Structure formats: C-alpha cells, structure tokens
Batch of 2 targets.
Target 1
Amino acid sequence: MTARAVRIANCSGFFGDRLSAAKEMVDGGDIDVLTGDWLAELTMLILHKQRARNAELGYASTFLMQMEQVLATCKERGIKVVTNAGGLNPAGCAEKVRDIATKLGIDITVAHIEGDDLMPRMDGLRPQLQHLDTGAPLVGAPLTANAYLGGWGIAEALKAGADVVVCPRVTDAALVVGPAAWWHDWAVDDWDRLAGAVAAGHVIECGTQATGGNYTWFDEIPNPALPLGFPIAEVEADGSSVITKHPGTGGVVNVGTVTAQLLYEIGSEAYANPDVVTHFGSIQLSQEGADRVRISGVEGSPAPATAKVCINLEGGFRNRMSFVLTGLRQAEKAAWVEAALFARLGGKDRFDEVEVRFVPAPSDARTQEEASGRLHVSVKSTDDRLVGRAFSSACIELALANYPGFFATGAPGDAQSFGVYWPALVDAADVTPHVAVHLPHHPPIPVAAPPSAVVVEPRQERTFPAVAAGVGPAVGEALGDYFAARSGDKGGNANVGIWARDAAGYAWLEAHLTAEKVRELLPEAASLEVRRTELANLHALNFVIVGLLGEGVASSTAFDAQAKGLGEYLLSRVWR
C-alpha cells in the first residue's frame, strides 16, 4: 500500500524570523517533520564573524531557543526535526541540541552533516572557482567556502534513526527533499519525484511568504492583522504535494501565493539542485480547497555534474552619510556639498569606491518632509580609518558652512566591515558529504551521489494554446493594475517574477514585456544584461537583472540591497 503523504512544516525563513513559530507549528496540528531555513547567503558571513569572536559558535542560536520550547513534544509525538541552522559549525550546534535534551530529561538521537566546508581544500580547488556570472578568477583569501549539499545526507540520517538532523550549507529545498526521500524510500534517480519535492521545498522555504507575506494581492488575505501562519507541504509518494497551513492561523494559501513563492529567487526554467534539475515549466498548480494548493506534474532530469559554492571574501570597510536637501535648487545644493566634502577629504581617488546618489523631491510638496530630497554619499576602502570618523565627521563639520537648510539624517559613525559574495561551481565529485550520528561506535555514513553519465531523452516542452490579443495595461496605466510580482536577490543579481491571473493576461505579458522593455521601465537596469524566462504554465515571466546588486548583499550600496521591493517597483511603472 502506498504510504500516506508526509507532512513537512516550516518554522523559519531566515535567521531572525518569528521565534514562536516552532511551537506554533508543533502545537497547531499534526506534522511529521519540522524544518526551518536560517541560511541566507548573507547569513554565512554573519556566522563567520560570530565564529571569529568565539570558535565554539558559528550556528543560528535562535534555533536552539526554539528547541527548548518544542523538543520534548517532538520526541513524544515522533516529529523529526531537520534544520540548516548548523551553519559553519553543525557539530557544535548538534552538541547544544543534546545538551538541551539532557536538560529536559529526554533521550534523543541527534545527527549532523558535514562535507560542505571547502576551506581546507581551497588551494587545490581554486582553479575551478571562477565567478559564476563574470568568469573572473578567484583572488584573495576566502573567509568561508561552502558547497551547497542536497537532501540525501538528511535521508541517510533519518534512516539511521536520527530524531534531529543538523545541517550545514544545504540548499533550502533539501530540507524537504531529504525527509520526503526518506519517508517514501525514493531512489537517487527518481527524478520526477525528487523534482516535485524541490518544488514543494522551494515554496515553503521562506516561511510565511507562501501564506500571504510579501504578496502583491494582499487584499486577498482574510484578516491581515492576524499573524500569518507558517506553511506545510504534504508530499505524496509520487512527488506531488499540497501546500497548506494549520487551521485557524492567519494568511491564505492560494494559487497566487504559491506562484509568488515559486518565482522567488530563481533563474532559468531549469532549476538546478544537487539532487535533481527541476523544470519549473512543468509545474501545474490547482486550488484543491480552502488553503490547499496542489503542485503536480513536476518533471526532473539528472542532477548537474557541478556543485554550487558560496564563497565570502573580505571586502573592506564602508560608511555612508545622507544629507537632506529641502525646498528649491536641490541639485545645486547637492553639487555644493559634494564638492566641499571631497575637497576637505582630499579627493575621491583616496577611496576604493565612491557612490554619490542624489534623490530629488518636489519643492512645492505638501509638507517639509515631502519637499526634502536626499544626497546619499557612500565610501569604501580597505583602510577603516579613511572611511570611519574621518569621513563621517567631515560631513557634519560642513553643517554651518554649506548649503542653506543643511542637516543630515544621522550622527557621525564608525566604518563597518563588509564582505563580498562570490558564487562559483566545482565538480560535484569534489564534494563528499557524510553524516555523523551520535551513537556509540557509529561510524560516519557516506552519502551516495546521484548517478552520473546518465543519458536522458530530450524533454518535450509543453505547449499552451495561443490567446489572440491578451489583456494588459493601456498607455498610462500601471503594470500593477493587472499583474503581481515577487522579487529577490541572487548574489549580485536580482530576480523579479511577474505573473497574471489567467492565460489572457499572460498572453499580454509574453508579447509586450520584453527584456528590452524592462530595461526601459527600470532606469537602474538600463545598462545591464536582463535575462527573460517564459513560464506559461504559471502565467509568468521571470527576469534576472545581472549585476544590479554589485558584489552581493553584504557589499551592495543599492537603495534596495536585496531587491525585495524591485517587483513592486516594476508594477508601479506606467506603460508607455
């Protein structure tokens, strides 16, 4: 008899998410597995700084706080816990979980996964580590270098009897792939099943973004004042799934919220994970009931021969000051203070990087705040003294000696260190994950790699009936009057997915919203490469704007450094 669906719940979308979420998910109804994602690309740099201060750290401490709340209940009810909160120190995090179990008087088996950390082998791997987008060779000494692992280590740990599996840098979707593969006893070449689990994992990985968070059509949320419930993926034996949430919790699960999350931080139609390549063009969504959306028809192909690596480099130091420019002649005021500041500092050439951004405001606006523009001055250097108080104090010392109405938005501050994100690929054979289970005389468990050199028939692309005219904005109307969007960061790139409610809306998008048009509508992207992917099955287009965020979130001086608002900005553009 086919096993029932495994109910996999999420309780965290980032390091800093709602602390009560684990208890809410455990107490709110039946679940089989509790997962959480803590490792945004920026988080790896944060954990490095944490570990540099104390070698015993390097993991997400909030996960341990949640375990104190729920671990006893999870043991009593047989709920497995799978997390990537181990970060740079999964063994240390796992040991802390055992300490919590001892304190609570419960007997549990905790496993942790290793093999993602490539730092000990950097010299030999360096020739492979060209920048994924620019092809530039890796120079300098990395602070961290972690390969993205898949779900098979998790599956092996659960098979060995682990109650809690602490992971390092696994892919976000692996937190669902591993438990689903263990529960249903999938094979490493069950490509379509694995691809279905990746799709489900991608939907629930960011927590409440699947239940109405950051959602364009937020007027569909029944009671927006109620805290949004975290999502659950019910993964079937064939890899299909239903996305839902506990009854009585806030938010909504509908085709729109699931579509939004499917489009979040993706690139091409072929979404590569260490276990399988998931083809997003095959995904079918249907509303199965209230707060229940089925994901089906997902097709997969063999895992890539390469593994993605997240490298963080020391970037140096930076500082920023913002001047307020009120009323008339804002551009002239901005030019005066910029010239005076850099004359006082000895010129712009003293810095490694300078960005000056003038943001005007209508001088005849209703209030003083609305009539005040901004001049943002950002500086970077490897010398923290140059961009520290020497810079910020020089800004304030102009207060009585420059443009009329001078004031700044903050006091002088010290320089802040920043890192550079460097994505790269290595041969998958160079990544060897293994599982450590805390049992007497239990040796590390090797993790089987997906089969290589698999010959696969070319995929038959789905075709969709043409819609003659399509429905979209007329000249003078905003894109957001018709469509929804979701955006995010992909290292130094940004992605924005935009979708319609139906085939007629998609027909308009496909015909009119080209990469060239996106460059026209978004001045920030005018000189950048924009890649478009059509996803007719989701009534959606996905755009990747290459280089919009510079060297990644940690070093970006962009106004929206993680591109979270980029989709809503695109929707506000008036068609012309």
Target 2
Amino acid sequence: MTQPQAHGLLNLRYAQALVDGLRAAGLRDLVLSPGSRSSPLALAFLRQPAISSHVLVDERSAAFLALGIAKAARRPVALLATSGSAVANWLPAVVEADLAAVPLLLLSADRPPELVGWGASQTIDQQRLFGAHLRACHAPGPPAPDFAVDYLRSLARRVLGECCSPLPGPVQLNLAFREPLLPAGALATGDVTGGPAVLAVGRPRLLPDRQLVADSGAAISGRPGVIVCGGDDNPPAFAAAVCALARQLDCPLLAEPLSNLRFGGHDRSRICVHYDAFLRPPSPLAARRPEWLLRCGSFPVTRTLQEWLRANRDARQIVLAADGRWRDPLHCAAVLIQGDPLAVLDDWQAMPLRAAAPDWRGAFLHAERQVAALAAAWRSRDDFEGALIPALLDELPAGHRVFCGNSLPIRDLDAFSGGGEKVLQFFGNRGVSGIDGNLSTALGVASTGPCVALLGDLTLQHDLAALAAAGGRDIVVVVINNGGGGIFEYLPMATLPEFERAWLTPQKLDFVAAAAAFGVAGERCASLGGFACALRRALQRGGPTLLEVPIDRRRSVAQHRAFWQEAAAVAGGLPAMP
C-alpha cells in the first residue's frame, strides 16, 4: 500500500472509530451537508446503519433541521459539515440551541493546523467560532497512525454527555484531516474493534434547596396568587403535577401554548388561555394585584402578560428554573428556585397548603368563560384571521405535532388556540425568537412524525430553500400571507412615513409556485371554509403540502383591535373582589 493510500485509510479508520463510539453512546441521527474535508466522517456515518443520515445541501437549513429533530426526539442530534464558511452557517441554529437548551453535537471538519492562519482556502479559526454559545469544544487534532480507539470512543461518549448535562445545549468537536482524505477506490468497512462496548452516563437531576421550597410554599399558602407557565421542554408528568398544585391552592393557571398544558387529558379546570384578552385594560382583572406569582418555563410571549407581570412586580414572584438559568428579565423575582420542577411540585403537594378564597380563582375563570364565548362567536366570521388557528387545530388528529413560527403566528396561537382534551404537541423556536430557520426546524420535527407548521410569509421566505428537504416528510406548511411584516402594524413605527419601506417590506412571491418548484403540492385558500377543506385533503393525502392563506392586513389589524375591545367589555362584568 502506498503512503497516500495508507493515509487515506488512516483517516477512514479514525472516522469509523469515532462514529462507532457515537453509535455505542446512543447517537441515532446525523444531518449531513456535502463537502470534501468532511468525507472520512461522511463515509463512516453513511456506512453505519444504526445512525440515520439526513442529507441537506444548505448548512444553515441543515442546522435548524437537526434542531427540530433534537427538540422532538428529546435526544442529541449530530451535524456534519466541511471546513470554512460552511460551518459558519450553523451559527443562528447554534444560538437557538444554546438559549433553548437543545442538545446538538457539531462535528466540524477542519484543515490541519499547519494550514490555519496561512491563507489556505476554506480555512478559518473554527475553534472560536461559536464562543460562549457552546457547552464545550474539543479539537483532538489530525489522526495519528497510532491513534487510540479507546480514547475516541470515550471522547464520543463524553461529547454526547456534555450535550445533555448539566445544561443541554451545543457541543463542538472540531476534527482536522490531512490529505489524501480517503483511500482510492471502494473500500468495504466495518466497525473498529476493541474498547469497551458502552459507558453508562446518567443525567443527574438538579435538586432544589428543600428549605427554600418549604419557605416558599408557606408564603403562598392561603393567599391569592397566579401560576404562569411559559414554553419549556417539560417532562410528561409536569402537566398533571402543576395542575394538581393549582387545584391545591385553588388558583388560576395561565398557560402558554408551548407549555403544552392547554391540550390533553390532565385536569384543565383552572387553566386560563384567554388572558391576552381579559388582562388588557380596562378589564378589571388587569388591575387586580395577586400577592404571589409562580413562573415556570420561559418568559411570556405576549406583551399583555409581560406588562401584567411588570405591573405586579411588588407581588412575591417565584421563578422555577429547571436548568438553573436566571429567567427574570424584569428583575423583580423574589425567589429563584433552581432545580427539577417536579421535585419542587412534589414537595409542595406533600405540604398542607391552603387554598385562597374562592372568589379569587372564580373571577379569573368567569373572565375565561366570557372571553371564550366571545371568541367562539367571532370564529363564525369567515374573514377573521383569529378563526384560522382553531379551525386548523380542530382538523388535526390526536397526537399531531404543531410547529408555530415566530412574529404574529405565535401570538395568534397564544390568543386563539383555546384548549381541549385532544392531545396535541406544540413546538417553537423561542430561545432567540427569530424568524430564521423556522421551516427547517419544523421539517426536523416532521422527521419524528406528522407535523403542521404555521408560519408567516416573511418567515417562510427567510427559509424557502428548506422546501428542498420536504420530500418524504409528512408536513403541512400553512403560510399566513399578510403582505410583509404585519406584526409591526401593532407597534409605534407603523405611523412613520418610512414604515412600508423599512419595516413592512411587502414581497411579491408566489409561494404556491415556489413550492411546486421543489416538488411540493400547494394550494391557495381564499376563505376559512376553503382552508379547512384543503387542510383535510392534505392530511388525508400525507406527504408535504403548502397551503397559502392570503390575509387583508389592515382589515385583520382592525378586527384584532375590535375583538380585544369587546373582550375587555365582557370582562368588565366581573363580580367585585376584595
């Protein structure tokens, strides 16, 4: 064997040992973007049947696709790309994975160290590329002829463990290879032998300070308060546990859609989902002052709930932080309980906590029923944008996944989704709350089962090339096309003369035709009834479909404001409270 042939074989054997270690440690999915420098790893992955390889040309889209798979599967997913700017395209998804605590393993192929900093093509400093957004970064250097298989397998287990604990997130493994990258000709490969089969690595629970938990429970017992649940990757038992606490304290529970509390068979009797309407002034509930607030999960999406929390900054605000992070952008938390929320809830349920006076919870539930009845009446209006989401959710079978894009769709989902016994699972990218990569993330979710993606027109345009990966996935992409950045119509810049040019930015893109260019079925829905029928057909047909729903933006803004005004009026009939 010639020396170049031997070096190519060395690269491949090295890659095989690492991939075999990742397989043994539990890796099941890789998202691969083609390239030269990553060839040894790509070939090793493609020849490892225990790991599913998803091939996507666009590295930016590939990173968000991996993010979606990791969110839905609740386990680490690996990314592989070649050196240079290819790896830099991962940055938006890496930032989202960091702030949303999603486990991603970044396998960045690299040039050998003698080429870095010397003007070689496709060569950048990849080890400092993602900065503080990483949980860890490892750079073992190019393969040496005497490389240790045991070390590579241990490294594989370590990086997957670092992805998951103590705080899930992205970990980078920067892998340099010298040329020739592969041996010439086809080579039959198998697992590299030697080394331990599996190293068991557990995921520890962050246990809270039990005295702090006990003191906090005593402080809220018998007093009027509210539980607020934002989006989070909660364990399955969380819904029943937090609803049991609400029953024990007889308090309202304000649940955002991404908390996954609105739908399911748990006790939803104290859950309120129309707070975006009944907490707006002049509703009397907007002026009510609870003595305590318990916040679980991410900070709320809607400005209404954010401002209500700000107005109640003097209440005893308790934040449950499962991952230990400080989630207090208002800087008004009185207590931060760092630890597993289930452990906290278990301790509280074991305490003799007393309920608040019944008229406290009753006022919130009365407002909930009043606004729910108003929303049901508005749903009959065929041109009301707020009727689109409940119509969509009504059509979905139990167990379906829903990915909601940022900007207006997530806010309309919050305001109009309602709730029910049917189990639905909701996903979103609320770590950074950007509109980039939303379709790619939804396609990642769809890799684990059928999914509907609800996106705005600019959000889809940001990620349109991701439609290339839609084939073979069971996904319906619903595009709410309101002619640009409609969310800015609700913000102060809407009155500026430069508004349309710099903020609204209306586009002239035929989404149905664009979908067809990628081999995706598409349909434009002119009415709510037409949308429901088209959605029904798409769900029955399976595979990828794009449904575009044109919206009259100005009419939609006027209707939203009219609905909120009516909701505040019906909430004004609430009984007086002490």
